[in-house]
Recover the amino acids of this structure.
């Protein structure tokens, strides 16, 4: 009644990302409202992406976090594969990060993997929640997501083995156990 307009504007990034000025924002709602506040949103990080009307930003954020679960599981699998073959984690991850397959995310998680530092930035329980939301949306929309479903079960196994208050990067320790391999910090 007062004439206020609202946007849905979830973010991607934890407190470290915020401090580095690299927060990403996805926004949806009335286009005119977005155009009025876009400059302010861009001040919060590396920019904002407008994706349309309504709650579309929520779907983007959920899809983003489903991808996070798939990427982290793939990353731990290939890292343990290389290490079990004899390649030190730090050396493999250095190679990966300098290749076309490396990413901001893999570089960001490298210290946690090398040193087995699972100080929480995003817990397995929160990741499972978002993966469940994404998979429920996929079922509702008729989108098959077999890779995401398999990654979700890996996150569930991590939680079932007591990894609840740590960072989801602990998937690397679970993957090592699944491979019959004892992983140690390279710190």
């Amino acid at each position: 009644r007062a004439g206020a307009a609202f946007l849905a504007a979830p973010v991607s990034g934890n407190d470290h990302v915020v401090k580095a000025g690299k927060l990403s924002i996805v926004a949806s709602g009335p286009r005119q409202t977005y155009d009025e506040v876009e400059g302010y949103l861009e001040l919060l990080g590396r920019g904002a992406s407008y994706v349309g009307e309504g709650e579309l930003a929520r779907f983007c954020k959920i899809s983003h976090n489903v991808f996070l679960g798939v990427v982290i599981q793939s990353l731990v699998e290939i890292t343990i594969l290389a290490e079990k073959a004899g390649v030190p984690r730090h050396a493999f991850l250095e190679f990966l990060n300098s290749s076309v397959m490396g990413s901001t995310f893999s570089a960001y998680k490298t210290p946690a993997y090398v040193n087995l530092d699972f100080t929480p930035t995003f817990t397995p329980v929160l990741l499972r929640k978002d993966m469940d939301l994404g998979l429920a949306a996929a079922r509702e929309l008729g989108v098959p997501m077999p890779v995401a479903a398999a990654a979700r079960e890996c996150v569930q196994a991590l939680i079932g083995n007591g990894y609840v208050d740590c960072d989801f990067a602990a998937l690397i320790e679970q993957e090592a156990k699944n491979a019959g391999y004892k992983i140690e910090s390279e710190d």
Q: What stands out?
A: The mean pLDDT is 95. Residues 96 and 102 are 5 Å apart (CA to CA).
